[in-house]
């Protein structure tokens, strides 16, 4: 199963993607950080304006 915000549309210079909003985020691996640092990370991400985070990539 795959999930794509574009559905089955292909991107090209002739037909650019039309997103309703700009997605700004990061890949996040909390297991790479000590507990004290990881506690502050969600707040810092929100303050930076992030609205999406990729996690559990290799779960």
Main sheet record: 2 strands, parallel
Euclidean distance between termini CA atoms:
15 Å
Whole-angstrom Rg = 15 Å
**Spatial strand sequence of the major β-sheet:** 1-2
What structural category arises from helix and sheet content? alpha+beta
- The beta-strand count equals 2
The percentage helix is 10-25%
What string gives the helices and strands in order? EHE
> What ranges have pLDDT less than 50 throughout 5 or more consecutive residues?
none
Number of helices: 1
Strand content: 5-15%
**Morphology:** elongated
Give a description of the structure.
This protein is α+β, with helices and mostly antiparallel strands. The protein has a domain at 25-54. Helices cover 22% and strands 10% of the residues. The chain has one helix and two strands. A two-stranded parallel ribbon has the order 1-2. Strand 1 (25-27), helix 1 and strand 2 form a beta-alpha-beta unit. The longest helix has 13 residues, at 35-47. The protein is elongated, with a radius of gyration of 15 Å. The two termini are 15 Å apart. The mean pLDDT is 81.
């Amino acid at each position: 199963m795959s999930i794509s915000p574009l559905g089955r549309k292909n991107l090209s210079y002739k037909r650019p993607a039309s997103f309703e909003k700009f997605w700004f985020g990061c890949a996040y691996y909390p297991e790479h950080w000590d507990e004290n640092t990881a506690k502050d990370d969600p707040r810092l991400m929100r303050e930076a304006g992030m609205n999406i985070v990729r996690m559990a990539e290799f779960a």
